[in-house]
Design goal:
The protein is mostly helical. Helices cover 57% and strands 0% of the residues.
């Protein structure tokens, strides 16, 4: 979380207190590309399960079922994407 410090003021009429302001989310901040990829893949739930398990156990070896489920989901998604790209390539070739 980022906090913005206010600009120092030269006026003595401003009471001196804490200088922290509320957290400010920058409009230009973008979602992490990896999070975007996982969201688009349809595997966000299994990814969340891995994260939850890791937070609970702090040991990836205890989270192998969740890791395997996420891996399987991503592999299936990648295979579907490859098939779609191949289909589009074939359709483009047939039209020329």
């Amino acid at each position: 979380m980022f906090y913005r410090l206010p600009t120092p003021r030269m006026s003595t009429s401003v009471p001196q207190g804490h200088t922290w302001t509320r957290p400010v989310k920058k409009e230009e901040e973008e979602e992490d590309p990896l999070d975007q990829l996982i969201s688009r893949s349809g595997c966000a739930a299994s990814h969340f399960a891995v994260q939850e398990c890791m937070a609970q156990h702090q040991d990836w070896r205890q989270c192998q079922p969740q890791v395997q489920a996420f891996k399987d989901c991503m592999n299936e998604q990648q295979a579907r994407r490859q098939e779609e790209l191949q289909r589009r390539k074939e359709q483009a070739s047939a039209h020329h």
